[in-house]
Amino acid sequence: MKDDTLSGIIDFNRWDWGDPIHEFVKVGIFCSEVSVPFSVGQIQGYNSGMEPSEQFWRLYSLYMAMTLISSVVWILKVKPEELDSMMEKVHRVMKDHDHFESVVPKWYSGFRLI
Length: 114
Hints:
The chain is an all-alpha fold. Helices cover 56% and strands 0% of the residues.
């Protein structure tokens, strides 16, 4: 509430504990498509301004690969009309990771500060 007006609602219906690195799959699927500098900043911010460790990237890439499958299942169930858009994202992520031969996505490794 703000000024006697409803400002928003927080829904804790489905909260759960999990690995914070898992949250970065949204960066790889959605944010990196819109802004690579923002996406790199999200990851480096989480890592205290440092380059992420090999362990970070291995977990990130594992979670990303797992999420690609569940994203297709989810979109077919919830918004099947957006399947083509989701498949474009899946193909982009696969390309970013050289079909998961690389744990670090190209959008990250190719980004350099000017």
